[in-house]
Amino acid sequence: MEQLYSLSLAEALTLLEEGKVSAVELTRAVLARIEAVENRIGAYITVGQEQAIAQAEEADRCRHQGVPGPLCGLPLSVKDVLCTQGMPTTCASRILESFAPPYDATVVDRLKAAGAVLVGKTNMDEFAMGSSNENSAFGAVKNPWHTSYICGGSSGGSAAAVAADECLASIGTDTGGSIRQPASHCGVVGLKPTYGRVSRYGLVAFASSLDQAGPLTKTVRDAALLLNVIAGYDSKDSTSVDQPVPDYQAALTDGLKGLTLGIPQEYFAQGLDPEVEKAVRQGIEVLREAGAETVEVSLPHTGYGVAAYYIIAPAEASSNLARYDGVRYGFRDRNADTLKDMYRLSRSQGFGSEVKRRIIIGTYALSSGYYDAYYRKASQVRTLIIEDFRKAFTQCDALVSPVSPTPAWKLGEKISDPLGMYLTDVLTIPNNLAGLPGISVPCGFSSSGLPIGMQVQAAHFEEEKLLRIAYNLEHRLGIAGRRPVIS
Amino acid sequence: MQITPEEVTYVAGLARLELDPEEVAAMAKQLDRILGYVAKLNELDTSGIEPTTHALSIRNAFRRDEVQNSLSQEKALANAPEQNGEAFVVPRVIEAI
Prior knowledge:
The structure holds 2 protein chains of 2 kinds. Chain A is globular. Chain A contains 15 helices and 13 strands. In chain A, helix 8 links the parallel strand 9 and strand 10. By secondary structure, chain A is of the alpha/beta class. In chain A, 38% of the residues lie in helices and 14% in strands. By secondary structure, chain B is an all-alpha fold. Chain B is flat and about 55 Å long. The two termini of chain B are 38 Å apart. At the A-B interface, helix 9, helix 10, helix 11, helix 12 and helix 13 of A face helix 1 and helix 2 of B.
């Protein structure tokens, strides 16, 4: 029989509903899997064994009483940037090492209310800043397909945990590609919803105008299932949008007749790995066979996305991260005599080098005399990027492209080259600047066996289109069941 | 040269960060490359283009001015590095002259 930990959410739900397996059995299987492989992957910062078993027992009781929520008894993980009451929330930073939030993020609250079992908090780049998960104070996460390669970032722990069957599904966050890129590198599905679709309450802020939480799952159906639970208006997030949440699973229909897919030429430009291009183009062919039309489109400002982002995101971060001052929570240097020294010493020891780098870039870009040249200019270019998308969506229903220009690279390969690392996000960043929904769905493998994902993007609140396209690709390719052998 | 080591030290100070000389040297070099790259934004003529700060047009979210549940004092203080049961305790604020 197939191992319980390797089930998708939908498969596990069927077994739970038929009474063939209990939530406790399922949770124990996942915890045992974590025990078996975690030392080779490093996907978790915290595993809450006892809490998870208690939640699973409660889920089994709810099911017996006939009141199961939509995720009743399913063992999930959550990126360590989302606040969890009674479970540490570190953002993979020394500065929050001992922080135990007094409340749950709305996303976590909704998962719990739906009956999910929270097995633990996943590793990430510190404060979600990074593309390789090497910027964690708790160690790098390894790619389950090849443990000497990076798993992507910043939701690398979530992607690796799903790929390595250390949870049935996970919630990550995406500011410049942080759900889609690690999903692509780990061969799982990663959905970044429209900005405002999912509440940011309790999501530790990095860049508030860009951050958005979303699911990382084994299948497209599971992404639809999870999105239905976490999406929706929340009065505690002033940027949350009050718009009805459709039944996302109903969007998973066979065939793509009537849909036009745009192929943005700039996303296939120089620097794209030939194996990535081949896999994505073959995937597009599969979508055509499913009935979709295709059209070449142009997003002329794509090449300026990274430059605009590396002003806007650090500017917002420098302001958001001013709260870590050693006063109300987090690390404090005990040797400081004055308040100012305490701020300086606590922050200098608490933050890692990438976080410091971004705080300094952001502070510089916002400082007197530079604001117009940097922040204002970048915000104007953001408008041009949004216009590109708006025009493209008059010609097509969705955009199909690679997620990352290359498959995963070796651990350590880019760590001393921050700009080189930033440039790997060239194909995911414009999406965040425009607040669009985007999905990464597996579409092939490189010759060295590393996964390659296809990105699909659509207009605001058109997650159903993304799911329908991704679903058609997934079940025609038939590679969703492929899992790594962890060495 | 986009940014000098002296500027890095100054800006770090504004952000309440202290870097040792080696960090400053490395940071200045990296930031110089990053800002050099960012300068490509100047290739674009953006005169007359409205800046975007939020991708969706959202308005301020008001609520009624009514008392709602909030954190208890005990919970609010629970994560503090130093507290006295009523307030956060910090080193002296006014520096000696």
